[in-house]
């Protein structure tokens, strides 16, 4: 359990952890490339380790150094000897579901049940309780359009994927549930023997994550073109081994940025690249629109004390279509902003590690927040800070969700009295040294076992 005590100010310099999304993709691309790739400054977190161990199970050789992961691959995925456990990582599950259809069995290993009619290998992907609730239907359906068969109960993990040649050249997929399905197809289709096209149906959400996929694929020698709302992939492309440096993570940095802003403090966050393709870079515009004072440099962000004792944040309307992971951060910011903060266009926020709209409403209400759940977002009425209204310490559940732990920690630092946050070990999913980092800038927080 985390014991979070009121904290007046923070100060100093911290480094944003490396990007989770970039690390996943770089590791998986390395495992698809013939030769040796070095992933420099990878995010050494539970979710990224899931991608790493999965690629190892699929035949890559991995050498872990403190600041780089060296991945050697024959450029083909091998049939794994066991079920692959992808833990809590939705990104790993979604991306690998397509790719493992391309496993090649070792020609020396004849399995007794294989006869002339059944030369298919299988790969089984499974994960934790939360992963087994994450929807997979649209991806399973898209893969069936390419003649790739995935067996499941209820369109959820565990999944049994049969190895298969890709057939066909056009695949349709809805765009409003998870961009990870589309990233998955983007990483598969370069193996197709014909040029292919991904047709996005309906609204496209979380699109910046597709830009990240295209960006990493490009570094590994694979080209994807965007045409209107669709994506074009040339036939028979090969992934090429490379050395890849991972940039800092704006989603993780959002807690550090919001903490600095809420405590009207001076802090510098390094390792944040100004021209990043990460959608969650939007946190900078969000806090600016709410009234914060910050300076954005090439590779660092400086949050500045407003030097105005009457400093107040303003409530604003925020479309989270492209930034679903910022919702818990914004929910806490909204509690301390004057007026109303409205979060909308976030239906997809309900199908993450947990239903984050429900969880933010339920838990922050325990602290006295005035927050209303809507089908696609949250309406947060700012506390009347001038008249002494504030959040109160409470004991909070976190649903094994890393982002809730970090957002609720910020709320606890601003609250009156101590806040107890259960299940703190889940921060290791994306920001393993979160507690040490925020303690180093003055957060009054400890772990209680
Ligand atoms: O591809 C990625 O790296 C991610 C895509 C997003 O999911 P959706 O596309 O499902 O919204 C995001 O929420 C997740 O944390 C990481
Ligand atoms: C939803 C997330 O990740 P994933 O989908 O990879 O589990 C997240 O990191 O907030």
UniProtKB/TrEMBL annotation:
Pathway involvement of the protein, from the record: Metabolic intermediate biosynthesis; chorismate biosynthesis; chorismate from D-erythrose 4-phosphate and phosphoenolpyruvate: step 6/7
SUPFAM superfamilies per record: EPT/RTPC-like
Active site feature: 325 (proton acceptor)
Keywords annotated in UniProt: Amino-acid biosynthesis, Aromatic amino acid biosynthesis, Cytoplasm, Transferase
Binding site for 3-phosphoshikimate: 20-21, 25, 178-180, 206, 325, 352
Recorded family membership: Belongs to the EPSP synthase family.
Protein name: 3-phosphoshikimate 1-carboxyvinyltransferase
Organism per entry: Methanococcus voltae PS
Name of the gene this protein is made from: aroA
């Amino acid at each position: 359990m985390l014991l979070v005590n009121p904290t007046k100010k923070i100060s100093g310099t911290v480094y944003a952890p490396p990007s989770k999304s970039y690390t996943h993709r770089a590791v998986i691309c390395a495992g698809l490339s013939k030769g040796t790739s070095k992933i420099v400054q990878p995010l050494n977190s539970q979710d990224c380790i899931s991608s790493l161990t999965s690629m190892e199970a699929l035949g890559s050789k991995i050498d872990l150094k403190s600041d780089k992961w060296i991945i050697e691959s024959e450029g083909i995925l091998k049939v794994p000897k066991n079920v692959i456990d992808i833990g809590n990582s939705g990104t790993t599950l979604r991306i690998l579901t397509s790719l493992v259809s391309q496993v090649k069995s070792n020609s020396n290993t004849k399995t007794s049940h294989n006869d002339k009619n059944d030369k298919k290998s299988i790969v089984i992907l499974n994960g934790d309780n939360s992963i087994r609730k994450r929807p997979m239907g649209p991806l399973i359906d898209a893969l069936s359009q390419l003649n790739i068969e995935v067996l499941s109960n209820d369109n959820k993990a565990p999944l049994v994927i049969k190895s298969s040649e890709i057939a066909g050249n056009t695949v349709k997929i809805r765009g409003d549930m998870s961009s990870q399905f589309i990233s998955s197809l983007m990483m598969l289709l370069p193996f197709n023997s014909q040029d292919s096209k991904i047709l996005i149906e309906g609204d496209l959400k979380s699109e910046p994550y597709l830009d990240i996929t295209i960006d990493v694929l490009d570094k590994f020698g694979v080209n994807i073109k965007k045409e209107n709302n669709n994506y074009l992939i040339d036939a028979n492309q090969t992934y090429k081994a490379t050395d890849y440096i991972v940039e800092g993570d704006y989603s993780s940095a959002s807690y550090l940025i919001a903490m600095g802003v809420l405590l009207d403090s001076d802090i510098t966050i390094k390792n944040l690249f100004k021209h990043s393709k990460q959608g969650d870079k939007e946190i900078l515009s969000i806090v600016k629109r709410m009234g914060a004072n910050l300076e954005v440099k090439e590779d660092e962000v400086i949050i500045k004390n407003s030097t105005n004792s009457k400093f107040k944040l303003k409530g604003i309307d925020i479309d989270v279509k492209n930034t679903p992971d910022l919702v818990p951060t914004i929910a806490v910011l909204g509690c301390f902003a004057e007026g109303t903060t409205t979060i909308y266009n976030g239906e997809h926020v309900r199908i993450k590690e947990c239903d984050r709209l429900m969880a933010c409403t339920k838990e922050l209400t325990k602290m006295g927040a005035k927050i209303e759940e809507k089908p696609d977002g949250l309406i947060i009425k700012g506390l009347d800070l001038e008249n002494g209204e504030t959040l109160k310490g409470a004991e909070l559940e976190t649903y094994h969700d890393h982002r809730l732990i970090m957002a609720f920690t910020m709320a606890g630092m601003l609250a009156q009295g101590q806040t107890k946050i259960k299940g703190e070990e889940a921060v290791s999913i994306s920001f393993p040294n979160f507690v040490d980092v925020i303690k180093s800038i003055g957060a009054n927080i400890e772990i209680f076992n």
